TrEMBL record:
<protein>
    <submittedName>
        <fullName>DNA damage-inducible protein YebG</fullName>
    </submittedName>
</protein>
<feature type="region of interest" description="Disordered">
    <location>
        <begin position="75"/>
        <end position="107"/>
    </location>
</feature>
<feature type="compositionally biased region" description="Basic and acidic residues">
    <location>
        <begin position="87"/>
        <end position="107"/>
    </location>
</feature>
<dbReference type="InterPro" id="IPR038627">
    <property type="entry name" value="YebG-like_sf"/>
</dbReference>
<dbReference type="InterPro" id="IPR009813">
    <property type="entry name" value="Uncharacterised_YebG"/>
</dbReference>
<dbReference type="Pfam" id="PF07130">
    <property type="entry name" value="YebG"/>
</dbReference>
């Protein structure tokens, strides 16, 4: 019988993700903390965002914090940030019946 050590990130009693290393689990937990803080900060925005939108946007920003930091410093966004928008525009032109994941979620 083999013994495996797993690190589980738990938030509000709910298991979020399981990792094989403590370092990965800690990094994910830290990202979730940042997403929560960004979600709280987004409540102050002059926009009407429901809880799900605010949570999703906070998670997206936290997940892409390195690209966001680069943009906020006034540097051009990394190529990985630029390409998906172009690919998305081309996809929408190719098949207008398919919406993005966020459009499908909103429906």
């Amino acid at each position: 019988m083999a013994v495996e050590v797993k690190y589980v990130v738990v938030r509000n009693g709910e298991e979020k993700m399981t990792f094989a290393s403590k370092k990965e689990a800690d990094a994910y937990d830290k990202m979730l903390d940042l997403a929560d803080n960004l979600g709280d900060w987004l409540q102050q925005a002059p926009l009407s965002l429901d809880d799900e939108q605010r949570e999703g946007l906070g998670f997206f920003l936290a997940e892409n914090k390195d690209a966001l930091a680069q943009i906020l410093r006034g540097a051009a966004p990394p190529e990985s940030v630029k390409k998906p928008a172009k690919a998305k525009a081309e996809k929408n032109l190719a098949d207008p019946k398919e919406g993005s994941a966020s459009e499908k979620q909103a429906a």
